[in-house]
Amino acid sequence: MKVLIGMLGQETNAFAAEHCDFQHFAPNGLVEAKDFIEVNKGGNDYPGGMIRAAAEEGVDLIPMVGNLTAGAILTAECLEQITDILLSFVEKHGKEIDGICLALHGAGRAETTQDLEAYTLTKIREVTGSDLPITVTLDLHANITPDMIRLSQGLFGIKEYPHVDKAAAGFLAMKTLIRIIRSRQGGPAYDMETAFTQLPLLIPPLIGSTFEWPMEEVRDYVLACKEKYGLLDASFFHGFPYTDVKDAVASVLAIGPRGKDQAEKAVRDIAGYVWARRRDFLSRALSPREAIDRALAVKTDGYVVINESSDNPGGGTPGDGTYLLQAMLERNAGPAIFCSIYDPEMVSLAVEAGVGGKVSGFLGGKTDKFHGRPIPIKDAFVCCLSEGVYICNSPVQAGMVISMGKTARLRLGQVEMVVTSIMARQTYCDGPFIAAGADLNHYRLIAIKSSNHFKAFFKKRAAAIITADPPGIQTSQFDTLPFEHLPCNVWPLSSQAAYSGEVQIFF
Ligand SMILES: [Zn+2]
């Protein structure tokens, strides 16, 4: 048995300033087919689980390419380019393969399509026909559409945020694909159906963490329903409202035995439970100043983490927002470190000045008007310069080599700032601090740009975690964003939003 395996997709933030070309989609290039297995084998990403399942079942894999990212709407050219790359593998191997196992994101959008995943699957189906078994893994923030379900034999979502269970979804998607293929070759029958419903509900990232109330309870409820109804899988997708498409809402999907109504019952049960709890999902945001005050009031030893959720590059934001950093510099409380802010111009100035030198200029706030004005910096001390490369220590991206480009650590008063120069990234772990020559234990306040993924590393280590949510294109204050395509009658934008209860069944 031969299976094509690959990972390609993007979480699109429609409010990002410039549309995303190939250079920004894959600044370090795609993980190429020749490296795909080696890079992912034993890893915690989706392909890691797929590879393990295939090895257990003695299935041969033909690797394609890998890249999952976040950013602005893909340009038409970028979409064409990545689709051509993917299709070149499907065309080359189409006659010898028995199925395809693909890691997509689920919240992708391009200039020419509002449903990147259905587009990708349609293009693949044009080569393979409608019958070839294809299973797909999806992010918790996927915006699920009926087309995505129709175009595959199974969608498998992750359940955790931070996303620590990607390999588990990959494992189940591959195992299921192999069952489907064997069933068609005369093995035990695979006879499942998918039940699906959309809720008129937006989940703010601020309350999205499944490590905390209330989403921890929701995750457990979904898992209990999977057992109670005897399902193959059940997922509650939070959706990604910032994609700004009509389907950018929460949804429930379950896969269970065909003709037994179990998947449908589970979807109704979970959707009813979630909808009844919608008031628990209202975000409780703090301004940067309030967050700093609260952090300084913490009495426990150790460091306090303040996360700026509204400028989380993992959600496609620019990563050069200045609201939280400005407030920290004004307050001059510390010792503090802000890691990181994207500003290649400031890094160049720091390189010119050299370690021990001083830099002046404007820092951050240069990409758009959503994330605060540039901060005037005068005579910041250059503490450290580095190449900004580190290996991720978080289970969310364990072992991944991440490059921030040429990186400078500057100091003004009691506040240090790590400034980076290529594609902003959210902070997952201590890696970017180490890459900038900083020891976490030397600080009282640690400020980062992330919504929840950082908790997989920091929750056990920090004295407290406090979230700031100033304006930004990933704010949880949805009513501040200029939505164009998202339906108006969704909770919490509309208190009149009503759930239809419609559940669709797909065979
Ligand atoms: Zn996600």
Q: Which features would summarize this protein structure in a list?
A:
single chain; 507 residues; alpha/beta; Rossmann fold; Alpha-Beta Plaits; eight-stranded mixed β-sheet; five-stranded parallel β-sheet; 14 helices; 29% helix; 23% strand; globular; binds zinc ion
Overview of the molecule:
This protein is 29% helix and 23% strand. The protein contains 14 helices and 19 strands. The chain has an eight-stranded mixed β-sheet. It has a five-stranded parallel β-sheet with strand order 2-1-3-4-5, with helices on both faces. The chain has a four-stranded antiparallel β-sheet with strand order 7-8-6-19. Helix 8 packs antiparallel against helix 9 (262-276). Bound molecules: zinc ion. The site of zinc ion has 4 residues, from loops.
What's the arrangement of strands in the largest beta sheet?
11-12-15-16-10-17-9-18
Which small-molecule ligands are present, each listed once? Answer: zinc ion
What does the overall shape look like?
A: globular
Radius of gyration: 23 Å
- Proper CATH architecture of the largest domain: 3-Layer(aba) Sandwich
Output the number of helix runs. Answer: 14
How many DSSP-defined strands?
A: 19
Strand content: 15-25%
**What does the largest sheet look like?**
8 strands, mixed
Mean pLDDT: 96
The percent range for helix content is 25-40%
| Distance between the first and last residues' Cα | 24 Å
CATH superfamily of the largest domain: Response regulator
Low-confidence stretches: none
- What is the CATH C-level name of the largest domain? Alpha Beta
